[in-house]
Amino acid sequence: MRHQQSPLHVLKRLRISYRVIQYGRSYSQNSSGGIAQTARRDEIAKLKERFDFPKATHTIWQLYRDASFQTQLQQGAAPKVVLHGWIDSPPRKVSRTRAFANLRDVQFLYRTAEQIDNEKHQASDEDVATIQLFEDLTAKSADINSPGVALLRRMKQETCVCVEGHVCRAKGNAPWRLEIVVDRITILNQAEDLVSQMRGAKDWDPKYRYLQLRSFRLQRALAMRSKVATLIRSVFEGHGFTEVETPLLFRSTPEGAREFFVPSRTEAGKMYALPQSPQQYKQLLMASGVHRYYQFARCFRDEDLRKDRQPEFTQVDLEMSFVKASDVQDIVESILVRLWKEIKGVELRHPFKRLRYVEAMSRYGIDKPDLRSDMEIYDLSEFATSMANPDYPVFEILVFHAENSKLPAAVSAPDGSPTLRTPLSHRIRLSKEEPSKWLHRCVAEFDLKLVSDLETTASEIMKKFDIRDGDVVYSCTRQQMPFENPTPLGRQRLQIMQETMNFSEKDLAPLWVIDFPLFTPTETGRVVNGYVEFDYSRLVATHHPFTMPSIDSLPAVLNATEDESSWVDARTIFGQHYDIVVNGVEVGGGSTRIHDSSLQRLVLSRILQVPGIRTHVEAGEMEPDNPFTHLLNALTMACPPHAGLALGFDRLCAILNGSDSIRDVIAFPKTQTGADPLVGSPSRVTDEQLGVYHVQLKK
């Protein structure tokens, strides 16, 4: 019995035979004769085909979109072409000698809205993502029963092939459709059965993300992302910006989010931190004399993940010297106007609407309101004051004007409490018989102090805000300066919009939210009777600690230097921060920066109480534990006034793509746990590897 050879041994012999044939020698090491020699020669020929195949003459896209090629077809020609790609669908055998299949190739050219409109093709981009292949073996002399002959009918779905053939019009109801009459098909790489099984699955295993990325939807999303980056760069270049790359190996600084650390091999016990943003480096660039800077920056934050967050993400970062907030906002508006015009074919009206933070919170219950709906929250302070909690005195309502008796789940709940401070979000629907019933319940729930009797107050409220029979009224309380964000009524407004309103891609409501509180009191973690508890004596920066106070708030900030025990009231101090919001999504945020070293030191040391920083430092005095020494030193060196902003590039692309999740516009996203199953990260490392970096794991 002949000993079975290992695959490795066979491969070695194939390599030897390949070299022999390559140099034109007929020598064979197989002593069994010509049959084995012929078989090996065929095997080597197939191997060569996989690496030495003809160059593609066209892409499917070009066959459909190239005007000169279309002219040839109209004149009756059947041009010979070579295409590369994958078998997109399982072949369909219509007889012993005839078969059909679809080919999908690799090139996807993202076209702008203007290009699509100008070309006015009958077929959509998705229609021309594939082309039909037709194989007719009737006139061929090849033995179709021979397993060594590459036939379309034998192809597995997703097999990688090179197709040679002639183009003609396909028969059927779509006169624009083309097909390739196959002369020769070469397998470049065979697909496993698992590939076709994955194609039919509803939920993709993230280990096979590269297969999912072959879909038209994700190919289009990645092409769109590339086009968006190109357009943004063109706007920056047109306004005199310089693209500068900043380091990824930074140091740990307290900016709010948890950081990712990289241990140093050369300095035991020390670590780099991956940047949460290039904020400090770009301010250093302003001190360096770079007038207008931008970059597509990779950022890292060790946060709890959700559909619009990833541990690593991309932001479009910009900074400008000798400017004010309006200058930055003009640049950002020009970017968004250009993107929506070229990607979506929509003209954005600009300048964009502006809302102060307090107004956004009081009218819409959130600092990133979706203004596609005119539904607002009404402040009833002129009619009543809540005495239930002194920190939440403002009594307010949200009214859903019902147009029919059947209401969606987000709205209908005729029984129970009309307030949202109870564990369940109940609401009440008005009736003719008891029009003041909702207010009666609110008086008890919120311990309301009314300016008039209950019946009169209810009647005046309903008249002023046009509340009618059948409407649904939601009632709640909030802080005078709302730090609870969103408020209960703000959350309810969003839920109603999501479940009862439909919007088209052309329904757009971009706006700037400005004049944010500079500082935010910390949450204690306690919720008492539905009320979130805040500690107003412990403040954090609302956005980051480098934001300039508003001019009117400067005296209150500077007052912190007069008395060590002076208390800064977060409810009265505002910053020069601005967020750009599109349809309820915060696309970016920026601010005018503090460019005065003394003021920046005061904010960090006295108000935010960052360890290691003193309020006053004598010339030459060292602060070894100060994490911001580099920035404070730069500000003392005549750093100019500057301002900037960062756009969330992933989130912006998701909006333009019409996606609910940024995962759709990222090639290799992480899971909800921050893992990448495709490559198996994060992965374990050995004790020996850790030892090189002076790191030891706790047992």
TrEMBL record:
Keywords: Aminoacyl-tRNA synthetase, ATP-binding, Ligase, Nucleotide-binding, Protein biosynthesis
Domain Aminoacyl-transfer RNA synthetases class-II family profile: residue ranges: 222-669
GO MF entries: aspartate-tRNA ligase activity; ATP binding
Gene Ontology cellular-component terms listed: mitochondrion
Membrane spanning residue stretches: none
InterPro entries in the record: Aa-tRNA-synt_II, aa-tRNA-synth_II, aa-tRNA-synth_II/BPL/LPL, Asp-tRNA-ligase_1, Asp/Asn-tRNA-synth_IIb, GAD-like_sf, NA-bd_OB-fold
UniProt family annotation: Belongs to the class-II aminoacyl-tRNA synthetase family. Type 1 subfamily.
Database matches in PANTHER family: ASPARTATE--TRNA LIGASE, MITOCHONDRIAL (PTHR22594:SF5), ASPARTYL/LYSYL-TRNA SYNTHETASE (PTHR22594)
Protein name: Aminoacyl-transfer RNA synthetases class-II family profile domain-containing protein
Phylogenetic placement of the source organism: Eukaryota, Fungi, Dikarya, Ascomycota, Saccharomycotina
